[in-house]
Write a structure and sequence with these properties.
heterodimer, A: mainly alpha, Rossmann fold, four-stranded parallel β-sheet, 6 strands, about 5% strand, B: alpha/beta, Mannitol-specific EII, Chain A, 6 helices, globular
């Protein structure tokens, strides 16, 4: 195994070099190649970038800020402080080795037994694992936003049902102007509280795509990636590109920032690179790409989809339900989802609809389908814990409430971490639900609210059965697809679990 | 390397064999006095205080019974190393036991890179047990100075 290390200490005379020597010796003794960059008083010679690129892992034995840390971004690492490296270098090496092994465990079930096994295959798995790690960096920061925002919104719906005293509280609360309520806030008014909770939850949801994009870029490029990542995510929101747009901007921003920060620039410019040049140029490029290059096609596609949907009226209702369901499940709040949802909500506004009109059925199909994916993932994380990372398991708990409240965003962390498996499962399950709602002729006169607007649903039993059927289909698909593919990050979490079990 | 040839990092006068002191402060003081006597430290009290400040940040006891007090100080005229072989071990804050060998590194505040490289090389050598053993077994000050010079200073 090839490791690179950075050592430093306050004076830069003794520990820096003792740690370096100790790590090199301990590495040699354990059969690993260790290259150390001593960031000490005698000046430091940066590690050869090729060496860094080919290293399996990084050891930070540094008491000072590591210089140019972004060189090592994305690699498995241990951060131990210089003293630990001086006194227990073999332990540090062992920790680094196990960090590396638990990261790209793919294809090497017994790494200690076969340290020289097929480097070519490892490289391939390495790239895939890296992409997964970057995605998971974004997702791990995204999850608390989803949980906090989603639960606030769900609780707001609950409160609203009580506060407005009728069946339509969850509808009323979204019609209120939050700014007005805040201006004349009445602590005794349950309605005002519901409005405030909703506004807070929606504020949290406003960050979903920027946080996802920003921290994917952070995973790739370290700090220089943050600004273009966040800005790119915000532009994705602006053009309605949803979380898939956020994935695009995250990767684009990360690689741009990484590339620009590696430019060989004159000394005078170097100082302002991280503060001005890198964020300015990378944000500009990401913003232009999203707004100018992708914004128009996305808008045009949404328009095309909408007019196509409008042209379908009179078509087979069950097929239409399946189609709308699939659209809801495809990008969970992204442009395609929005087209289907807007189509349904626009239908509600038609004058003089009879109870049970097609427009109401369409609304029911769309809402039911939008509830499927978060619920299916909540179910899947409950019955097959071992297929998900710890973070995903936690998110699965919140997803019960979010799915029940028709907050499709509850599924975004799963979908962003593992796009195609989740999207395929989501698409099929939501589509089944959409078709079934149409088949049983369930209807809905409210544009949202999930289980909180149950009284407004025509044939609620049929509605519930349709949702459950889709959830079951979707959950089974997720489990099957995830079982088929070995996931190194999940494997790492499992290994940690097993260690905990042994320790306990 | 003309400067280091002019004032070698270590001479026999800077080595104390069978140094007998009760604690870290005592050992450090004895070594500081050697440096001051050789004219390498202008203000013994000032330099001792600088070393103590550094020591307070993080104890410099190293694995293998080594104490490595050090400071970059304006009171130092030439990069120097004073070595003490202790009659009895003194706790230097290392987890694996008391120190038998103490190296006091004195670096000028404006030390140039060449000198600092030598000190870096010393720190690296100290990790090796064979180096420590050869110093512990050295019979007199001259041998200690020779070993350090041979192993650490580039010729």
């Amino acid at each position: 195994m090839k490791l690179v290390a950075v050592t430093s200490c306050p004076t830069g005379i003794a520990h820096t070099y003792m740690a370096a020597e100790a790590l090199e010796q301990a590495g040699k003794a354990a059969g690993h190649e260790v290259h150390v960059e001593t960031q000490g008083a005698a000046g430091s010679t940066p590690l050869d970038p090729a060496l860094v690129a080919s290293a399996d892992g990084v050891i930070y034995a540094a008491d000072l800020e590591v210089k140019d840390k972004q060189r090592f971004a994305g690699k498995p690492f241990v951060d131990v402080g210089v003293k630990k490296a001086v006194h227990d270098a073999p332990g540090v090496i062992a920790a680094a080795v196990s960090a590396v092994e638990s990261a790209p465990a793919a294809g090497t079930p017994a790494p200690t037994a076969a340290p020289v096994a097929a480097p070519a295959a490892d490289r391939g798995a390495g790239a895939g694992t890296k992409v997964r790690q970057w995605l998971m960096t974004g997702v791990s920061y995204l999850i608390p936003f989803v949980a906090a925002g989603g639960i606030l919104i769900a609780v707001s719906f609950m409160l609203a049902q009580i506060a407005w005293g009728g069946a339509e509280g969850a509808i009323e609360v979204t019609g209120v102007d939050a700014a007005e309520v805040v201006a004349s806030f009445d602590p005794a008014s349950l309605q005002d509280w519901a409005v405030v909770l909703l506004a807070t939850g929606q504020a949290a949801f406003g960050f979903l795509v920027p946080v996802l994009s920003g921290f994917i870029a952070y995973g790739i490029a370290d700090r220089p990636g943050l600004v273009p990542g966040f800005v790119g995510g915000a532009t994705a929101v602006l053009v309605g590109a949803g979380f898939l747009g956020g994935l695009v901007t995250g990767f684009l921003a990360g690689f741009l920032a990484l590339w620009i920060s590696r430019w060989d620039v004159p000394k005078g410019v170097r100082g302002i690179m991280p503060v001005v040049v890198v964020p300015l140029l990378s944000s500009l490029v990401v913003g232009v790409v999203m707004l100018v290059l992708l914004g128009r096609p996305i808008a045009a596609a949404m328009e095309g989809l909408t007019s196509w949907l409008n042209g379908l009226s009179g078509a087979n209702l069950v097929l239409m339900g399946a189609l709308l369901g699939a659209m809801m499940g495809f990008d969970l709040g992204g442009p395609v989802n929005k087209v289907a949802y807007t189509f349904a909500v626009t239908g509600l506004a038609t004058e003089g609809l009879a109870p049970g009109a097609v427009q109401y059925q369409v609304m029911a199909a769309v809402m039911a389908a939008g509830m499927v994916t978060p619920l299916a993932l909540a179910l899947a994380t409950t019955v097959r814990k071992r297929l998900f990372t710890h973070a995903e398991q936690e998110n699965g708990k919140a997803a019960w409430l979010l799915g029940a409240s028709f907050i499709s965003e509850g599924a975004i962390p799963f979908a962003a971490a593992d796009p195609w498996r989740i999207i395929v499962s989501s698409l099929v399950g939501s589509s089944v639900t959409g078709a079934l709602v149409m088949a049983v002729g369930s209807s809905l006169v409210a544009p949202h609210g999930g289980v909180w607007v149950l009284p407004l649903i025509g044939n609620p039993l049929g509605f519930a059965a349709a949702v459950l059927a889709g959830v079951a289909v979707s959950a089974v698909l997720v489990v099957v697809l995830k079982t088929m593919k070995h996931d190194p990050l999940v494997a790492a979490d499992r290994a940690a679990d097993d260690r905990d079990l042994v320790a306990a | 390397m003309t400067t280091s040839a002019a004032t070698p990092l270590i001479t026999p006068e800077l080595v104390a064999v069978d140094l007998d002191a009760a604690d870290r402060v005592g050992v450090t003081r004895a070594l500081v006095d050697l440096l001051a006597a050789a004219g390498r430290v202008t203000d013994a009290d000032g330099f001792a205080a600088d070393v103590a400040t550094r020591e307070a940040q993080m104890a410099t006891g190293m694995p293998g019974g080594v104490g490595l007090p050090h400071a970059r100080s304006e009171h130092v005229t030439a990069p120097s190393l004073a070595v003490g072989k202790l009659a009895q071990g003194v706790d230097w804050g290392a987890p694996d036991g008391p120190a038998r060998l103490v190296f006091l590194i004195a670096a000028p505040a404006s030390g140039d890179a060449d000198h600092l490289q030598i000190l870096a090389a010393l720190a690296r050598r100290l990790v090796h047990e064979s180096f420590r053993t050869s110093l512990l077994e050295a019979p007199d000050a001259q041998t200690v100075a020779d070993i350090v010079t041979r192993e650490v200073v580039p010729s």
